[in-house]
Amino acid sequence: MVAALAVSCLLVATAFPAAARESFDDFLAGLRSEARRQGVSEATLDRALSGLRPNPKIIELDRRQPEFTQTFWGYMDRRATKKRIERGRQLLSKHGRLLGQVYRKHGVPPHYLVAFWGLESNFGDYKGSFGVIEALATLAYDQRRSKFFRAQLIDALRILEQGHIAPDRMQGSWAGAMGHMQFIPSTFKRYAVDHDGDGRRDIWTNLPDVFGSAANYLSSIGWRKEETWGREVRLPADFDLELTGLGTRRAVSEWSRLGVRRGDGGRLPASEIAGSIILPAGYRGPAFLVYENFRTIMKWNRSVLYALAVGHLADRLKGQGGLLAKRNDSDRPLSRAEVEEIQNRLNVLGFDVGEPDGVAGPMTRRAVRAFQRDVGLPPDGYPSAGLLQRLRQAAVDPGGDKKDDVN
Question: What's the predicted TM-score (pTM) here?
C-alpha cells in the first residue's frame, strides 16, 4: 500500500511539476468560475467536482505510446473478426426497425452505423470505466494538451447541467470519450440528439439516441446517402504510383481508362463519382478506390486504417465477402524507434519530415515517396522494413545501385 502510494505521488509530481503551474485546488477554483460564466450551476459543480483529485493512471495512459506500428493486415484482423461480423449481423437484424427509422431521418445506412458501433465499443461492451469528469480534469490540469481538455471539461459540465446524465453515470475512456459511439463532449454538444423524445440525449444506455446521434453526426459532416465508401481494386502492372494517395482525385471512369479494375478483375461501374487510389500496405499490398464517404469517416477518426476497417466491416455486415488481395508475409510492424530512424535518415538526406516523432504521418509519407523516386524504388510512400534497409544502405553508399528494389 505504501509502495503504491509512493508510485502514485511520483507520477503526479512528474506529470504536474509544482514549479510549472498552479495547484490542483487553484485550478478547480478557476474552472468553477469559468463554468459558472457559461451557465453551470453551483449545485452541478458541487456534485461533479467535490473531492475530485487528478488520477495518475490517466497521465500514465496518455503518455504511453504503442511500441510498434500496426500493419494493414494486423489491424484488419483485429477489427473485422469472424465473431464481430456474425454478432454485427445479428444486431443489424435485431435493431432493424430502429435503424431503418434513423436511416430515413438522417440518410446513413444501418450497416455503417453498426460497423461504427462495433469498432468504437464492441457493440457497447467496452464503453470505458473512467469517470469522465475525473479524466478530463486530470488532462486539463496537465500541461500537454490543457487548452483542448479544459474546453472538453466545460462541455462535459454543461452536459451534466442539462440533465442528460448523472455525474456518477458519466463513464467513458481515459481520454473522456463517452458512450456506445465514444463521443467526446464537444461532439456530443454539437451532434447528439434525443431520438426517442424523452427529453434527454443519452448516448450511454439509450440505443435510439446512440444511433440517432451517430447518424446525425455523420450526415452533418458530409455523409452522402446514395454513395458507398469505396471498394477493393486491382491496379495494372504499369500503373503510375504517383497517382496514389488521397491528394489525387479522378472520376471512376478515368480510373477505369487507366486500367484499374474491381478486386475480382471485373470492370469498374460507369460513374463520374470522384475517388482516390490508396495503398495502405504499399504497392505489394491491397489497393482501394475510396470516395467521399471514406473522407467523412476520416473526419470521425483521422486514420486511414480505421476508415478502411469501418468500410470493410460495413460491407461484411451487408453480406459481402472478404478481401481478395494476397497477404504480403514479408511486411512486418515497425517499432516507433524504427520509424523515427527512418525520419532521421530522411532528414539527413534532405527529405524533410519535420521533427522526428516515430509516427508516419502525411509529411513522412511524402518524404518517403520523394526518396523512393530519387533512388528508383516504386514511389508508394510506404515506410517499411525494406525502406529502412535501403536508407541505411544509402548512408553507407549514397551512390549505389538505384534499381535495387527492397521496398
Answer: 0.92
